[in-house]
Amino acid sequence: VKHVKPHQVLAINRGESQKVLSVKIAVSDWLINKLHDFCKYRWLRTGYEYPLRLHFFEKSFKDAYTRLIHPLIARQVRSTLNQEAERAAIDVFATNLKKLLLTPPLRGTPILSIDPGFSNGCKAAVISSTGTVLAAEVLHINFKPVKFRSPHEDPVAVRLKQLLSTHSCELIGIGNGKGCRETEEYLSQLIQSGWFQPMDVQYTIVSEQGASIYSCSSEALQEFPKLDRNLISAVSLARRVQDPLSEMVKVEPKHLGVGMYQ
Question: Known PANTHER family for this protein (predicted)?
Fold first, then answer.
């Protein structure tokens, strides 16, 4: 039991609650024998070990251990493990949340964000140095390697360059969800080919946790009444790079994906 980690305890509890597995606390024979010897010494001392008394003692000990003692030990062990696991989970959550909320901001920097996607396209948004939405649209990126075709023939590459140059933006934030790796490779090839020159375009990876939930919330609809919900998540990603604290507080902590078991 002492080797079970807090995150393993939480995983076991979750599996048990979903009836995927059952949990049983096994007590070592050494402990059972020690308890048996103690009880025998306490209630069956020398001179009282006649057969009937010994038989009654053995049956009583077996019944007491099976019906009362073992369940009590199991409950106490599970309770101790759960308390330690919950305490550790809270500590991990608090530490990770603090680091996330205190991420250094990039204020005063225009940012283009991309919320990657395949079938429905990539949602893109550009915000000004003050967080104002300058542009928001869907880009259908062709994830084939750029080296096999000219960026001039790629409408998405042309549009990205236009957005960056129009709004004097040199930083791109990429959501870390599905399609992140492909989008990163796509942008890397464009940057390496010198497509965005003379601008010094760079990119960073942004956590998407909670962005989609926020985009469907009433607060987001009040803040962006005329903006499509799918594009709100892209705006949120850009603002997370520019001012993480101001944007993260809009999402419930449980949706930020910083817990031990997330």
Answer: 30S RIBOSOMAL PROTEIN S1 (PTHR10724), S1 RNA-BINDING DOMAIN-CONTAINING PROTEIN 1 (PTHR10724:SF10)
